[in-house]
Amino acid sequence: MTPANAPDIAVARSHSAKRLSIIDAAACVFCREGFAGANIDLIAAEAGVSRQTVYNHHGDKENLLVAVVREITDRINVGVFDTLATFPDKPVDLEADLVAFAVRLNQNCICNRDGKFLRKLLHTEGERYPALFAGWREDGPAKTWAALAARFARLAHAGWLEIDDPDVAARQFLALVNADLQMAMIFGDNLSEEQLRTAATNAVRCFLRAYGKPRPAAI
Amino acid sequence: MTPANAPDIAVARSHSAKRLSIIDAAACVFCREGFAGANIDLIAAEAGVSRQTVYNHHGDKENLLVAVVREITDRINVGVFDTLATFPDKPVDLEADLVAFAVRLNQNCICNRDGKFLRKLLHTEGERYPALFAGWREDGPAKTWAALAARFARLAHAGWLEIDDPDVAARQFLALVNADLQMAMIFGDNLSEEQLRTAATNAVRCFLRAYGKPRPAAI
DNA sequence: GACGATTTGGACAAGTGTGTCTAAAAATAT
DNA sequence: ATATTTTTAGACACACTTGTCCAAATCGTC
């Protein structure tokens, strides 16, 4: 099986490489021009591929959009999961640790390429093709919020925070982290690292004023 | 002049009524389908007008978009201004008054028809036609934030709040108010009044935990 | 009732985009 | 080196849209 497999893998590599290249280019163009305004010739050119190849791989323009959304949401879910794993469960300096976490959240999930794509696609096509994002809606925000809420609940239990409703607190944390970035993100501005840091600091300060304890009881 | 005016007004009324009707329909279709996907025949039909009339009034598809954006941003600015005027400068029950204010903000500026339109147009066309929204960007968010910050600063000065940076606090207040609504708004869900009230209550509670004083020093 | 302006419906040219098809070229595996 | 598969480039039909033009119809005013 192994010798017979090798060719399959090789073919699959080139094949899937093109597939990815097409999806990336399509994501880019869909986001820039909108679904209706997106031109398949342009996507093909941007992917360095002939138009026919695009049709060979994804058949349809609508199908291509589906593939793009699936790919982006998958990547985003991975990024969120990885970043959540870096939550400061055993903080040393709670404020500094939460700020660092918030910065990572912004850099790896919200302000990066995929985050921008997902946000744009959600806003442009979310209302028209709700089914496209139904899967993400269940697997994405809901689980993220719940996971973050669980982390905060543990911090509260350990005496670092005073929280009534961890779910609400988690959503508020995320809202505060984005408070200063919304406008820039809408217009596609590139955010400097310092801006990210300032935004995160403002957010965490506010969050800790609301939910922090004067002095941690444990550790 | 008055008799000579009457016809003009009458004509103008019918004229401007059609103009508005066209702009409303165009806003609707642009938001649903995106600029490229918007069909002028559809806009005309939805406005109850012949296609030629659309061209008579606005000349161009792009011109029509400009008119739509101008109209929507104007209306939004008025709504924000009016709502800001209802800020509880002399609160009786600070939490209740701020909650009521937040609910008004959501109902009159953010979750209403125009708010939805502006949000959608910003996301779909903001990056491609930044000039379209340049005027709003200066007259809208910046002034709103400043005005709200001034109100909070006065509350702080009167002893109700403890705020370092009123500008940051104002942005955070708005971010908190929207924390629970983002997802629903993206998918165009209609929000019940109870949802708005709950969201506002959560937001104000968090805001006051962060910036409220244990007991107001003055009335 | 007649006038002027606006609106209407339809036809029209021109351009653009999708999706299919074909034969030639390239790449890969045997 | 050869056979199989993928990719390419181009042509193609078809549908759709934009923006214009025009004559008939409608509306409100005098």
Automatic annotation (TrEMBL), chains A, B:
Keyword DNA-binding: yes
Gene3D superfamilies xref list: Homeodomain-like (1.10.10.60), Tetracycline Repressor, domain 2 (1.10.357.10)
HTH tetR-type domain mapped to chain residues: 16-76
Highest taxon, organism lineage: Bacteria
Residue ranges the UniProt entry marks as DNA-binding: 39-58
Source species taxonomy: Bacteria, Pseudomonadati, Pseudomonadota, Alphaproteobacteria, Hyphomicrobiales
Pfam families xref list: TetR_C_7, TetR_N
Keywords for the protein's UniProt record, in alphabetical order: DNA-binding
Species whose genome carries this gene: Aminobacter niigataensis
Protein name (record): AcrR family transcriptional regulator
